[in-house]
Write a structure and sequence with these properties.
141 residues; alpha+beta; Glutaredoxin; 2 domains; 4-stranded mixed β-sheet
C-alpha cells in the first residue's frame, strides 16, 4: 500500500472514531438528562402530593390553629409535607410572650393543634388526613 493511501485511511478511521465517540457521549448525556428529569418529577410529586387537598381545605374554610413550638402541631404539618403552605394556618404563639394571639382567643382554640371548619367550634388534636377529608368533603389523592 502506498504511503499516501495509508495516511488517508488513518485520517478516515480517526474521523470515524471521533464520530462514534461523539454519538456515545450524546447518547449517555441524553440518558443522564432523562434520569435527572424523572428524579425531579418524582421528587416534586412526592413533596407536593397534597397540594390539591390542601387548597380544597382552604376553599372549604378549614383552618388550623397551632403553636410554633408544639410537637403535635409539627406532626400535623408534616402530614402535608410541602403542601402545608396551602393550608390556612394561624400561629397562636406570640414570640417573647406567654400570651396567645387574639384571633386564636376569639376562635376558642385552647389545645393545639385545633381545626376549625366554617363556623363550628374548633376540633382539638392531630387529625388524620382521612378525618379532614370526611369533615370537609375534600378528596385525598
Amino acid at each position: 500500500m502506498s504511503e499516501e493511501r495509508r495516511k488517508k485511511q488513518q485520517q478516515q478511521s480517526g474521523t470515524a472514531g471521533a464520530s462514534l465517540r461523539l454519538r456515545k457521549f450524546a447518547t449517555w448525556s441524553g440518558v443522564v438528562v432523562l434520569l435527572a428529569a424523572a428524579y425531579a418529577a418524582g421528587w416534586y410529586r412526592h413533596n407536593h402530593r397534597y397540594d390539591g387537598f390542601a387548597k380544597c381545605l382552604a376553599s372549604k374554610q378549614a383552618k388550623m390553629y397551632g403553636l410554633y413550638w408544639c410537637p403535635h402541631c409539627a406532626e400535623q404539618k408534616e402530614m402535608f409535607g410541602k403542601s402545608f403552605e396551602y393550608v390556612p394556618y394561624v400561629e397562636c404563639a406570640i414570640k417573647g410572650s406567654h400570651d396567645e394571639a387574639p384571633e386564636c382567643k376569639a376562635a376558642g382554640a385552647k389545645l393545639f393543634p385545633s381545626w376549625q371548619f366554617g363556623s363550628d367550634p374548633p376540633k382539638e388534636g392531630v387529625l388524620r388526613l382521612e378525618q379532614l377529608s370526611e369533615k370537609t368533603g375534600c378528596g385525598l389523592p
